[in-house]
């Protein structure tokens, strides 16, 4: 009898992280949704072409030596007046629109990812502190968050961007301008992370494993970041995915208003602002193709965020 029990195979699940993920409800939900798979493919495609822009682009739009004013405002290549290698036409500086979109995607995604990383780090840290410590610290942080919620994110970003540029001086190099954009966008979205994490921490800190951690003498930072934080990351991932699209839109809005990236290093928003000046003169391609690229990118990320929100919601399983 004992030999039979020892010889009987034991059922065990996947032991690796990848195996557990492929066996999870989240992956099953992803495979069931054709729209989500298309959105993921489109997002990865945009990310890949942005990373490989230096290889795929027929021209470096940031290099003045490669620009020729004689090639300015050319229509797309399928038009009778189109020329190679300007697949989607050129702008007023003789810049290839297709190349500018690839390089602009890189900047827009870079600002979006860095802005989300900064806002998530700040919001998670403040939310952990507010939820775990409570009392006066919690009241101060939450009242600051409540005040910021009364203003739209774009106004906060404009205010922070204007104040920082006034302190540093009006003329900033592209790298400093990008840093200012990341800082202003990050300060615009930290509140959502802080309020969500605070609510989750207030639930988690009353559980037995936190009481046990306190009994063995673990310091508060260790309890917050090593034990509580992993258990509140589900909602944070959903907020981060949705906020990535919002950060890209915010950067495009700031650039369109003239307070974002300069024309010498344009993002998608800057390209749209440049093309808007020539829309009514017939050069529609200068604004149309960057606008389509921005719309598709934001739509794909939003669809992923919506799917992730539903997939991680236990009430919908």
UniProtKB/TrEMBL annotation:
Q: Which InterPro entries match?
A: BP-dependent_transpt_permease (IPR050366), MetI-like (IPR000515), MetI-like_sf (IPR035906), OppC_N (IPR025966)
Going by the UniProt record, its keywords in alphabetical order are: Cell membrane, Membrane, Transmembrane, Transmembrane helix, Transport
Q: Does the keyword Cell membrane apply?
A: yes
Q: Which CDD domains match?
A: TM_PBP2
Q: Which Pfam families has this protein been placed in?
A: BPD_transp_1 (PF00528), OppC_N (PF12911)
Supply the SUPFAM superfamilies for this chain. MetI-like
The organism sits in which domain of life?
Answer: Bacteria
The similarity annotation says:
Belongs to the binding-protein-dependent transport system permease family.
Stated name of the protein: ABC transporter permease
Organism listed in the record: Microvirga aerophila
């Amino acid at each position: 009898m004992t030999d039979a029990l020892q010889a009987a195979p034991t059922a065990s699940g996947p032991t690796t992280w990848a195996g557990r993920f492929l066996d999870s409800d989240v992956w099953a939900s992803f495979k069931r949704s054709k729209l989500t798979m298309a959105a993921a493919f489109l997002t990865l495609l945009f990310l890949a072409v942005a990373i490989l822009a230096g290889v795929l682009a027929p021209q470096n739009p940031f290099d003045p030596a490669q620009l020729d004013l004689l090639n300015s405002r050319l229509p797309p290549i399928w038009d009778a007046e189109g020329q190679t290698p300007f697949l989607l036409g050129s702008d007023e500086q003789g810049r290839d629109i297709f190349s500018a979109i690839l390089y602009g995607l890189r900047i827009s995604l870079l600002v979006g990812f860095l802005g989300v990383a900064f806002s998530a780090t700040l919001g998670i840290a403040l939310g952990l502190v507010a939820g775990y410590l409570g009392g006066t610290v919690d009241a101060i942080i939450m009242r600051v968050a409540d005040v910021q919620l009364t203003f739209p994110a774009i106004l906060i970003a404009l205010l922070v961007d204007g104040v920082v540029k006034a302190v540093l001086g009006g003329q900033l190099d592209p790298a400093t301008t990008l840093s200012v954009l990341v800082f202003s966008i990050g300060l615009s979205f930290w509140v959502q992370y802080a309020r969500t994490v605070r609510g989750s921490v207030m639930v988690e800190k009353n559980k037995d494993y936190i009481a046990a951690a306190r009994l063995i003498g673990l310091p508060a930072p260790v309890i917050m970041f090593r034990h509580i934080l992993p258990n509140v990351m589900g909602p944070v991932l959903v907020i981060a995915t949705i906020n990535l699209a919002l950060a890209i839109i915010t950067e495009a809005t700031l650039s369109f208003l003239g307070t974002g990236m300069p024309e010498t290093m344009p993002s998608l928003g800057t390209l749209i602002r440049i093309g808007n000046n020539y829309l009514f003169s017939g050069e529609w391609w200068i604004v149309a193709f960057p606008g389509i690229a921005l719309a598709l990118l934001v739509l794909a990320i939003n669809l992923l965020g919506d799917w992730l929100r539903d997939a991680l919601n236990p009430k919908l399983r």
